[in-house]
Amino acid sequence: MLYGLACSNGYAVGKAEVIRGIPDISPQTGKVTPEKELSRYIAAVKLFEERANQVAEQVTQTDGGDEKNIITWHIFILKDPYMDSEIKRLIASGFSLEKAVISACETYSKVLLMSPSEIIRQRAADIIDVRNTMLEIISSSSNPAPLPDESVILIADTLTPSMTVGADKRHVCALAAANGGMTSHAAILARAMDIPAVLSVEGITDIISSGDTVIIDGTNGIIIPNPDEDTIKEYREKAEEYRRRQLALAEYADKPTVLKSGERVVLYGNIVDPEEANEVKAVGCDGVGLFRTEFLYMDRAFPPGENEQLAIYKKAAIITGDKPMTVRTLDVGADKIPACLETRGRLDPHSDVRGIRYSLKNIELFKVQLRALMRAAAYGNVRILLPMIDTPDEIRQVRALMKEIGRELKGRRIKYKENIPLGAMAETPAACITADLIAKEADFVSIGTNDLTHFIMAANREEKEVRHLCATSQIAVLRAIKHISDTVSAAGKPVGICGESAADLKLLPKLIELGVRTFSISPASVLDVRRALSEI
Ligand code: PEP
Ligand code: MG
Fold it and tell me: What is the rounded distance in angstroms from the CA atom of residue 195 to the CA atom of residue 213?
């Protein structure tokens, strides 16, 4: 049995299709001259762009914003001035185009792999993808191998985004790879496509060969190579049960969120882009409880401007209607470091200039986001949530900034809303201990149990050795949650949880017992959680 990260739920039994290394390069015939290689390069880039745009067009017509962004990002990588000049430099020094592409991509990916940010390191997979597509185009072996009729489990050292996007659901029933994490593009795409996936499985391509029968348990992060008949039967039943459960849950979309006693519970949805507000609406949530805006800054050369952000927030606010649409301001830090922002690599990115600290240090960048939010608030029920609040003064500073922006917008006769509810994330020990003071300054409080657990237990969630300590079920964390919840409620302000723990069905009864009655979770978990609440 092999273990990895459970990146996308579900079960699958199938034959492995193992992808190793890079595509074959047809040997180039004739003499290599820089002029000839340069013209081949220009033609290949043109073809790459045409093809990528075609694929982007196709995915837009089917289901995907994420996929389109990734493909657009690939064009951006290839045309990046650094990549472009490196390939041209190598060609000028006598390299064949194939060698120049391989070498430039290797250098580029090494630079990304040195980044302290997990997210940027994972973008190295995109470079492999760009390299492989370019090599395919150059060698004209551009027709992809026909997909088998039977469903397969795609296995690779690194699952590149295009491998994942190409994993047509009719033929690929699961994904597994030696590298990658929860936030890698392959994981994001697998979840969006509803295919089980287990990533970060050491040595998987050495252990499993194409044609082997394999079980993938994406719910628990388990892979079973060459299982016996009984195990196959057991997992086929699990897969069927999982499918039945998903179908049965549909009836909870129209039900109110109540405990067994009939007591009402507030259930909000967490989103990372405005389109997801539709999913939140479809599963009958009470609104959006957490719009993580840092993802709007990822995979791009420049941060989004005021009008671009206005359009995004306005869209989410209109979809959400009268219900609250809570937007968290940029939460840079830990593993979320957008390449377009200037952040310094440090020893401990978790307790560094992150969250609200970053925004208050980069006031002009912050003002762009606040201005867009205050303008978008004129179109719906927008609330603003501040990440990593440590002191009440940080909230006061933001209020003063919003007043200043309000005066400026009024002076320019630009439509905006005043008195937008301003909330604080309670996710540090400081915010917990001073919850009474934070509650005086904030209009509402959201407990971020992911970071709160990490900081209360002084245990990094990415560190395998201390995973047992980094658990929200630890008594110290539960006491912290209760303290924040009781204190903020006593001050007459709304309080809820927006960390992953709110979707942990084992922990949910405990959180209810502690008195928490507001949760914000991913829309994919809403029906499961609503059903579980109805039995508590
Ligand atoms: C949290 O820390 O619980 C939280 C919701 O914020 P994030 O997971 O985005 O850090
Ligand atoms: Mg957090």
Answer: 17
CA–CA gap between residue 373 and residue 158 (Å, rounded):
38
Of the residues 229, 245, 261, the one at which a domain ends: 245
CATH number at residue 441: 3.20.20.60
pLDDT on residue 335 = 64
State the average pLDDT over residues 145-168: 69
Dump pLDDT digits (tens) for 341-362.
877 655 566 778 899 999 999 9
* Best of 329, 495, 498, 519 for a ligand 1 pocket test (most atoms within 8 Å of beta carbon): 498
Verify whether residue 498 is a known catalytic residue: yes
CA 293 to CA 388: how far, in whole Å? 14
Average pLDDT over residues 516-527: 91
Nearest to 492 by CA among 446, 447, 448, 444: 444
Contact of 387 with 427, CB cutoff 8 Å: yes
> What is the structure's pLDDT at 462?
61
Domain hosting 194: range is: 152-165+172-245
In a domain, 83, yes or no: yes
496-519 b/e (C-beta count within 10 Å ≥ 16 → b) = bbbbbbbbbeebbebbbebebbbb
185 given a catalytic annotation: yes
| Catalytic one of 7, 185, 285, 432 | 185
Q: How many domains does the chain have?
A: 3
Residue 279 — φ and ψ, nearest 5°? -65, -40
Quick check: pTM over 0.70?
no
In a domain, 42, yes or no: yes
Return mean pLDDT, the chain: 86
Of 74 and 394, which is predicted with more confidence? 394
In short, whether 354's Cβ falls inside 6 Å of ligand 1 is: no
Would residue 143 count as lying in a domain?
no
Positive or negative torsion for Cα 205, 207, 209, 213: negative
Q: Is 450 in the pocket of ligand 1 (CB under 6 A)?
A: yes
